[in-house]
Amino acid sequence: MLHGLWSPGAGLLLWDDEISTGDEPDLPATHSHVLTRTFRHRARVTFPDSTRRATPRDPVELPAIALAPHDAADLLLRTPSAHPLISGDLRFLGHVAQGIERWVRAGRVVPALKLMDGQWWPRWRLVGGERQRAWLSELAVAMPSVQRANERPKKLLDDMVEELTDPIVRSVLGKPDSEHPLLSALVRDDPYLDGTQKISTLFDNWRASLTVDEPALVLRLLEPDDDRDDETGDADGAPDDAVESFWTLQVCLRADGEAPRPVPMSRKVDATLLSTAVRKLGEAVAAYPRLRDLPTQEGTLDLLLPTSVVIDLVEHGATALQATGTTVLLPRAWTRLDPSMRLRVESPAVTKAAADRAVGMDELVSYDWQLQLGDMVLTEAEMNRLAVSKGDLVRLRGQWVLADGGQLARAAKYVAEHHGDGTALSTLMREMTLADPPPAPVQDIRATGWAATLLEPGAVPETIPVPDGVRATLRPYQQRGLDWLAFMSRLGLGAVLADDMGLGKTLQVLTLLAHENSATPTLLVAPMSVVGNWQREAAKFTPALRVLVHHGPTRLRDEALDRAIAEHDLIVTTYALMAKDRAQLAAQTWRRVVLDEAQHIKNAGTVQAKAALAIPADHKLALTGTPVENRLDELRSILDFANPGMLGRPSDFRKRFSVPIERENDENAVSRLRAITSPFILRRVKTDPTVISDLPEKNEMTVRANLTAEQAALYKAVVDEMMAQIADAKGMKRKGAVLSALTRLKQVCNHPAHFLSDGSAVLKRGQHRSGKIGLVEDMLDSVLVDNEKALLFTQFREFGELVAPYFAERFGVQVPFLHGGVSKGKRDEMVEKFQSDDGPPIMMLSLKAGGTGLNLTAANHVVHLDRWWNPAVENQATDRAFRIGQRKNVMVRKLLCVGTVEERIDSMLVSKQDLADLAVGTGESWVTEMDTAELQELFRLSEDAVGE
User: Fold this and answer.
1) Which of 192, 266, 279, 606 to pair with 742, CA 20 to 30 A apart?
2) 244 φ, ψ (degrees, to nearest 5)
3) Edge-to-edge strand order for the sheet containing 698-705?
């Protein structure tokens, strides 16, 4: 008689009991073929004791044939159920194999990927689930004693099912043709060459998601049965939360497509469902141990939770449970409510500034702070109750609320102590910058009277009609800008118009001046490169406005200047002359001082910033497309010009805002800063379709050039020299060496002649010495073929002077170079010619001199030849072309050299955008703070840096 024994690791072992009478029927053909093999293996068999003693007989070893899973599956699927020479134990194993085949034909299999002998092998597995577990449980009970004596039933069946499923699936599928390598490997039993651990994990996760026949565990949190009065507390006057309340965590099962159903412990409950609930609850407790050792509700599996566990469940446990597939249902869908502060300000409809423009920040208001939880503004009684609560989960207005009790207590105290009647607006603003700030984020400001227009987000000032003398049609956002400027001017409050470059800040200011038509002149300070632009725009849009340009060696002085100022409406000068002529300008009576490109005073300690503060005016206005270029301190400096003292001293501002926001991403500090500054800043971006819908697209791309062999040799020499210099250097000497090396490496990446400053040629024997210049030459070829124009930006004047003549000769066109040494008249001429249809198609600009204020919409290609490590500065330069008036899509290319410091810093800047709306970075100085190993890696020249 033929017997079978499944042995994990060995497969199917066949053995013969050698009892023969001589007249037995023949074995089936399949089995007879197998028995022609040699019995070279040994089967360890434990026979049951015929005397039925408690202990079985000692195991014996018998000769056996070992069949691998493929052959075992083939034999077992053909094992007849009633053949007299087939033993019961072998028929049992055949029954298991036939059961696997039924699961396979029902489609309850999925692929898996296993790493064996260094290769990834696709394997088929049963999906699993409750029904398959029940089937295996029945098999375990029916397992012959011979089989169970050698191995635990569950372990043996799990191994057998895993080993036999794969060959049985392949026998059912056959070998269909497939071009997909994974499917081909699955059906042909080949290794999958592209296998990875990630793919294997994805298959496992997919299998886990397919057990649709098994109900899922749902834990439903039920509120305590507590109907005490929220406001008055219990009978002895104690708050409700002074008494411990137990919450019920109800254990439910949810079948696919059905609602969760509780699982009571009762004889009427299906034993399989109860077993499933107990097993899954055990898995949930293992995932979230705080559910262990809790009391249970009598007659159920439900757990009773104290408030402390409920809080932890909501904050941490629910996430851990959901990761195991357990759903947690919270009552009324509540979650943690974070407290926030609301400021309520009352003011009269008419301001003192209407009669006395010098009042400004001294306007009087009344204010109160309020505490919010979610959308609920809390009463004083509610705040008192929450402040003395023992835990973070309390009952409020008939529902349970989860909030930080300690923070609530601090917020309630702050609300009680901070309020005022007849308080100056400047005092209220400074209060929000104190060392003891509001203990929760400031999320909302409500106001009445004139303060509503100033403080409430979305408030709309009174519409100002465009004066007849303005020869322009304002866009809707420009009209809103005019309305806001007029409102701030009428209120006597300094303002920052921070519209994106190219949105028409000039037109909005000129329209404001025409609207006011003041007898007292306005002083406008601008970079020299845009003084002519203001002169031209005023003549174009507001020809009745009398404009005086105070500039140049022949400018008016002393009494002549005094008389001229009195005879004009707008005096335009430069930052340099504002500082130089500070005394006389400060002695004038000004209606307004306007700073264009106000980032020129971003450093409060500079002569220009101090001069701007020293010139008195009824109204101060700052214009900038980038209120923050590098650090938040720059925003403080600009706002300090507009409203002196509003943000306190520089050291206090750094302590309360710059450090918490830039280093720690402090959301509370961010919300306070926005609440303080947003009333005084109007910011619109050109990419917002609600602002401007007819601006073409801007496409930006980083273009990588390879170094030439000459550049690579110079690059390595600079790095080696720097590393030697900083080996023992410290402090300023070390920082100086690093910054010097960074500059020189940029020069090397531009062109060897730029670095060497030896006057050598751009080409050598007809070949490019710089990978960048060769690349730019190809770009410009395409631009000129399409009859389009390009702007080339560089931060180095000497580099522009090197390549501008080369491109002029190469393409036979004029290539003007606008830099800091070009006079105002020459600049204006360059811009006018470039903007004309027959003007030069290429213009070179230095980043500082040509990066702001200019209108160069004739170009629709912008190339940054070398990178300035401040995206805000680069964007300003790009906006010379990407602004109102541009009709073509703008292509922006930023060049860098492969495998160099340029590429590595570019990667760092791309990944450093968390505070992009407030601060972008800290220029290049942060590089000097790296340790020597980091610098070595940053400046290292990669092997792929040099081109072919």
Assistant:
1) 606
2) -65, 130
3) 698-705, 890-897, 861-864, 790-794, 842-846, 817-818
Say which DSSP state 794 is in.
Answer: E
Hey, what are 535's tokens? 């002169």
Per DSSP, the residues of 325-364 read: T-EEEPGGG--B--EEEEEEEE--SS-GGGT-TT-GGG-E
Lowest pLDDT segment from 9-18, 100-109, 340-349: 9-18
**Would you say the C-alpha torsion 522, 526, 529, 533 has a positive or negative sign?**
negative
Q: How many residues belong to the chain?
A: 948
- Measured CA to CA in angstroms, residue 162 lies from 9, 157, 167, 768 at distances of 12, 8, 10, 65
| Angle at 171 (CA atoms; ends 170, 175), nearest 5 degrees | 60
The closest alpha carbon to 135, from 213, 59, 70, 78, belongs to 213
Pairing of strands 41-45, 11-16: unpaired
- Helix (H) / strand (E) containing 423: strand 419-424
- DSSP three-state, residue 420: strand
Task: Give CA torsion, residues 352, 356, 361, 363, to 10 deg.
Answer: -10
Cα–Cα distance measured from residue 209 to residue 203, given in angstroms and rounded to the nearest whole number: 10
Q: How do residues 237-246 score in pLDDT, each as one tens digit?
A: 344 444 567 8
Q: What local confidence, expressed as pLDDT, does residue 914 receive?
A: 40
Q: What separation in angstroms does the CA of 574 have from each of 132, 523, 750?
A: 84, 10, 32
Q: Strand 109-116 relative to strand 60-67: parallel, antiparallel, unpaired?
A: unpaired
* Among the ranges given (4-18, 430-444, 576-590, 640-654), the one the predictor scored with the smallest mean pLDDT: 430-444
Q: What is the pLDDT of residue 790?
A: 95
- Rounded to whole angstroms, the Cα distance separating 817 from 317 reads 65
Digit-coded pLDDT (tens) for 553-593: 889 999 999 999 999 999 999 999 999 999 999 999 999 99
Give the integer Cα–Cα distance in Å for 358 and 493.
9
